[in-house]
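Honest question from a wet-lab person: if I give you the sequences of every part of a complex, can you actually get the arrangement of the whole thing, not just the pieces? Trying it with mine:
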Amino acid sequence: MSPAVNGWEAGYILDRSPVYRRNKFNYRHLNAAELVDMQWKLGMAVSSDTCRSLNSPYVSLLLKIAEPSGQISQKALEMTIPQFQNFHKQFKEMAAIMETV
Amino acid sequence: MAAGLSSEDFTNLQLLLKAPSKDAVRDVCVQSHRAVSQRLTENTAATFSIPAAQAAQLIQSLHTLSHHVLFYNLTSPEQILAVFPESFHSSLKNLITKILLENRSDFWKLLRHVSLPQLKELDWRVDLVTGSDSVSRMAVPTCLVQLKMEDPCPSAVGDSISTVTVELSRESLDTILDGLGRIRDQLSAVAGK
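Yes, you can. This is the full assembly:
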């Protein structure tokens, strides 16, 4: 059991270890946000003011994130195809480990 | 902005003949690409023993030239040499071409590309929650993911690197993998065409 329970009720975290709060079997790390939605787009950059003929494919993601406070924020990001492939690989690894733990 | 090259630009570029060494030519080419600054103008004027006004024009023309090469994606010596007028000093033309080709990828990286924040780093950790204030014994895996993104056009005040940390349950992770799988499928479909 977390030793900081009373401290948590009072609004403080007495020791610096993370405090877990149960919410119908959804365990929320109080310091981390929760990913609520992920939208994606596969695009092709055709041209820009710096390069007339870019022909560069990219993946962009729009992440909807719920902060511990409950506030929802959005983060948009872009990545190249090699970056996306590594991104995908990393998530597959996470899932594989989650499976075995 | 991709400005065209004029005959005036080539006149200015011939000022490079006043350089004390090939390294001096290389230095001014590389620095002009990044920005046209007062300090660079002064240094160039001093190094080349030319008036500041001429140094400024030389730097501006070099800047236009290096951006022109990137805009039109000129990647071979022949393509770059073709940009110069016939009458242009032959060995200087070759030297400038060589410098532009050598620095091509660095010059490209220095350009401000219009884009959303670019993914810089992905770090993650799988935790096993073994207990909480309401359940003394449990074994629920959870994943903490940290994304670092670099904004290519940061606001004056803001930091260009932003960090997002999220916690993912098994279900969220599966949903994400589903989405990523669809992107991969789309990529294969597009590549096949």
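Two things worth pointing out. Chain B touches chain A through 60 residues (CB under 8 Å). The CA atoms of residues 46 and 151 of chain B lie 37 Å apart.
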